[in-house]
Design goal:
heterotrimer, A mainly alpha (257), B mainly beta (106), C mainly beta (149), A: mainly alpha, two-stranded antiparallel ribbon, 11 helices, 41% helix, globular, C: mainly beta, five-stranded mixed β-sheet
């Protein structure tokens, strides 16, 4: 029902060839595409529902757990100091695994490794709360995913997914988000898909969610089979999106429609 | 795990009108949705909110499914005396949540 | 103004589910819901300001404020504010009981609206009178949602 309407609208919007990245100074956060009310929700901690998850993340940060009976504070102390700038450089290369990992995977590696605790499930309240709390410590920092040479092949893999036509609607991320941002689709503005505020509170979900969840929504939106949580494709896409947003400021926890 | 975030100025002048903001974690499941198998999802909402100021009720509300998840509710009161503002939310499935905030009134 | 926050713990759970398709209310249902509150009294237009944004990002979360022109003295105050809608499955949105201690007759919250429709706010004054105002609001559906519809 919605799908065929979108297919028709898209037929009008999309050009055949790719046109490349958005110029650096033309990049805009999803914040700019929202109404004043939704922006106010993001800006005001007392009104941003994400604050509830941040408070839970703070509790988890200081709670001892696992066979090692140690809390995050055991190694990392005060998150405001030790975690400052961390989310701004994730996904990051994990030498042991030989591939990039996102912040959720990094947190779970700490849980299973240093704490001897079971990993937190994808999109669980605990993992979202902890990831939001850690990412919050980078709020206002510029995204710096670009340095590591070892990340380059994975950034290119992410870019290839981003530019590839997918799904029954047979469109690529680039076609909407690089070529047609600022237009509207079914009454909603198409943003540039700059992943600056994750995990974030999405009004559509009425809940906090990760970038992987949002990417799975996008894939469902073009009628492609969404990659499962934790799939390397999703991490590569995350990596590419953060590289694409390099220099833009972290907004976590953002609010988005 | 769910919490309440209550925002009250810690200090106020006697007679000053202060703004009180409350935000609680609650899904506010409307009772009108279905899961992916088509089965109805039972209603699970906060139905009542009461605020007292040193024991006297100053504001109350009946909430309905049309209130968004993680309800935000803002209202005002006159700062009359120092003391405690107490907030209570109740709802379906024996939901109950309490919070308090202190205020110093000069 | 610095803030002070308190928090406590209660139980909760998170479930990801699909979009609703329930039968919606009608203006007649709304009128009935209004009658339940107001009875036979005449509802006059005025005194009430209903703030809803002109553009909505998402029908799940719409910032709404209602304020009433009233001195809020012990002899002349707003007893209650009731808000109704005409197209959600249920006609009531919120009913708030106030009193002279409020200082100002103003409430603010976030609501859900299922479709473009009219929202009506009714104020009940201490002298027994009722006053109302309505606003039309346009609500669109999100383009890329989670479920396959």
């Amino acid at each position: 029902m919605i799908g065929s309407a979108i297919a028709l609208l898209l037929a009008g919007l999309l050009s055949a060839s790719g046109a490349g990245e958005i110029a650096g100074n033309e990049r805009r956060s999803g914040y700019d595409f929202m109404t004043a009310q939704t922006r106010a929700m993001q800006d005001d901690e007392a009104a941003n529902p994400a604050t509830l998850w941040l408070l839970d993340g703070e509790s988890l940060w200081i709670r001892k757990t696992g066979s090692a009976d140690v809390a995050c504070t055991g190694c990392h102390g005060d998150a405001a100091k030790s975690m400052k700038g961390v989310a701004a450089r994730y996904p990051a290369f994990d030498a042991e695994l030989g591939r990039p990992v996102d912040l959720e995977e990094r947190i779970n590696a700490c849980r299973t490794g240093a704490q001897g605790a079971p990993p937190l499930a994808w999109e669980s309240h605990e993992l979202l709360s902890l990831t939001a709390y850690v990412s919050r410590q980078s709020r206002g920092q510029p995204i710096v995913v670009d340095g590591d040479e070892k990340l380059k092949p994975f950034i290119e893999r992410g870019r290839a997914i981003y530019e590839r036509r997918q799904g029954q609607l047979n469109i690529s991320c680039a076609q909407c988000h690089d070529q047609n941002w600022e237009r509207t689709l079914a009454g909603n503005p198409i943003t540039q898909a700059q992943a600056t505020g994750y995990p974030l509170y999405r009004l559509e979900w009425q809940s906090m969610g990760s970038l992987q969840r949002r990417l799975r929504n996008c894939l469902a939106g073009v009628r492609a089979e969404p990659y499962p949580f934790g799939a390397p494709e999703l991490v590569e896409l995350e990596l590419y999106l953060m590289w694409r947003a390099r220099g833009m400021k972290v907004e976590t926890p953002a609010v988005r429609p | 795990m769910a919490r309440a975030v209550v925002t009250v100025p810690p200090k106020a002048k006697r007679g000053e009108i202060i703004e009180i903001r409350t935000l609680i974690a609650h899904r506010m499941e409307t009772g009108f949705r279905h899961d992916s198998y088509g089965r109805p999802l039972a209603r699970d909402i906060v139905t009542r909110f009461v605020c007292t100021y040193n024991g006297a009720e100053i504001c109350s509300a009946n909430l309905f499914p049309a209130i968004s998840a993680n309800p935000l509710f803002t209202f005002t009161t006159v700062a009359t005396e120092s003391g405690t503002l107490a907030f209570k939310w109740t709802g379906d499935n024996d939901f109950t949540l309490d919070a308090t905030a202190s205020i110093v009134v000069e | 103004m610095s803030t002070r926050r308190q928090f406590l713990v209660a139980a909760g759970a998170l479930v990801i589910v699909s979009r609703p398709s329930a039968s919606n209310a009608t203006p007649a249902m709304m009128q009935e819901a209004v009658r339940k509150v107001v009875g036979d009294a005449q509802i006059r237009k005025g005194k009430v300001t209903l703030d809803l944004p002109p553009l909505i990002d998402n029908g799940n979360v719409i910032a709404m404020s209602v304020s009433v022109d009233s001195p809020m003295t012990p002899t002349d105050y707003v007893k209650a504010i009731h808000v109704f809608n005409e197209k959600n499955p249920q006609p009531n949105i919120i009913s708030v009981t106030l009193g002279p201690r409020a200082g100002r007759a103003m409430i603010s919250t976030r609501i859900r609206l299922a479709d473009s429709q009219t929202v009506t706010a009714i104020a009940q004054l201490s002298d027994g009178s009722f006053w109302q105002t309505s606003r039309d609001i346009i609500v669109t559906v999100a383009a890329c949602t989670e479920e396959i519809s």
